[in-house]
Batch of 2 targets.
Target 1
Amino acid sequence: MVLMTTTELLHFVGIRIFWLNLTPKLIPISKQMKPVGHGNEERKIKVKLSFERKCKMKGVCKVCGCTWNNPCFNHQHGFCWWANKEQDLCSHCAEELLSKDPNTIHCVNGMVFPVLSVHQPYALMLVEGKKEFEYRSWKLPKQYIGKRIFIHATRTLTYFDPQFAEKAAFDECDQKAIVYNLNSMILGSVIFDESQEPTEYIVEGQPKQLYKWPVLEPIKLIKPLANIPGKQRIWKIQF
Ligand SMILES: [Zn+2]
Ligand SMILES: [Zn+2]
């Protein structure tokens, strides 16, 4: 038996207490592990709360979060409008037809869209589905095949050529373009299929090789986007 003085005993107990305090508590492994996705859940809740707070502000759609400065766009109906007096639900979320339409894009601010400028009345004919092909001296670039492209009407009117259009449809669209002054506007959009191999045409007395771009799914905007100057080739517009 080891005899200890009081000082030795206190010192021994002190060390034991000190040692005990340093000893990490054993926690079952199951409790040490954080539930999977714990961090993400917290994050989701935070995002949701801030979104709900934002939605209480007037002029923010409670479904998509669009605002006056960052509206939604539909290729036929144009930009969204408020569907209720509270101004917290936009038309493109409220109306089933619009919300389910694949041609509705929410919160378009900063988004970039391809545009093709076309002489009138061909631009109008394209969006009204009265022109089967677009004729160009260049091939439609690969990245635009099957993509929706805006059709922009230039200031210039052009003459009828039986090689490229049907007379009655040309005359009808020509009249509309003149009467309603449809120029420097985006009239709607179409999808172009892959260009067909070039064929020779005689344009203004000169032989010209032209590619045929098949026109698919034309959509005319109810209200054109006005005051937009035209550009060459396929250009981009940013909302
Ligand atoms: Zn909305
Ligand atoms: Zn909207």
Target 2
Amino acid sequence: MRLSGLALLLISLTLSSTLFCIHPVQCDHGEEDELFQEINKYRASLNLTSLSKNENANCFANEMAGEFKGEACTNSTGANTVPGTEPQFSNYPDHLTKCHLNVSNTRDGSVMPACVPGLVPSLVLDNFTRSLYSANLNDSKYTGIGIGSQDNWIVVVLTTNTSQGSFVPETDDNSSSANVISQFGFIYFTLLFLAASFFFS
Ligand SMILES: *[C@@H]1O[C@H](CO)[C@@H](O)[C@H](O)[C@H]1NC(C)=O
Ligand SMILES: *[C@@H]1O[C@H](CO)[C@@H](O)[C@H](O)[C@H]1NC(C)=O
Ligand SMILES: *[C@@H]1O[C@H](CO)[C@@H](O)[C@H](O)[C@H]1NC(C)=O
Ligand SMILES: *[C@@H]1O[C@H](CO)[C@@H](O)[C@H](O)[C@H]1NC(C)=O
Ligand SMILES: *[C@@H]1O[C@H](CO)[C@@H](O)[C@H](O)[C@H]1NC(C)=O
Ligand SMILES: *[C@@H]1O[C@H](CO)[C@@H](O)[C@H](O)[C@H]1NC(C)=O
């Protein structure tokens, strides 16, 4: 009985970690997922619609983060940049192509890089909600979001639901909160079962 309980625990742990990793994005980049949820809480506090994940924007955000990677954080980079002085990358079009995008469907989008040593979640959130970037987060025209990070850099890309800013969304409305809930339920049930099997053995 004891052995089968242990086996059950092992099996359930394996299963639940597999479930957790169905979306690799959520697996590897906790900061990104956390920022995604915090931004939507911020939007909710302003009675704005929540932003849905956009895979192409996500891809593009990662590409941009790769460009900034290695650059030091200063008081004139990232969220502290004076608008209009952001660096322009010559290989911008290549990054668009890599993410199945082109200038026509990204024109109305918004790319916001931030530099925070160690990507400390609360500081990262402040960099978006307490800077000039908040003007974009406050804007009801944005409906989608992509987030990418490399090193100390995290990039948020906002998309619209118009053809000039759609980033050609693939609908990826994964029910991450539902996943977590069902998983807690599963683990809880397993522990209960395990406890019961010890009790009755
Ligand atoms: C959001 O909506 C609620 C209920 O309609 C209202 O009480 C609240 O003042 C609104 N908040 C903002 C920031 O508009
Ligand atoms: C940025 O940092 C430099 C050096 O630390 C300082 O001299 C400058 O005043 C700062 N600028 C702003 C706008 O805070
Ligand atoms: C962008 O892609 C669309 C659809 O694939 C195409 O019609 C359009 O010509 C492209 N625009 C540019 C500037 O490449
Ligand atoms: C963004 O993060 C950096 C690094 O932690 C910090 O120095 C800066 O004050 C933050 N900016 C905002 C607007 O929160
Ligand atoms: C965005 O909205 C928040 C909350 O209403 C406000 O504090 C902030 O100043 C706004 N940002 C801009 C750039 O207007
Ligand atoms: C686009 O978003 C706006 C604002 O959220 C909404 O009012 C509108 O119905 C949306 N249009 C489409 C085609 O989804």
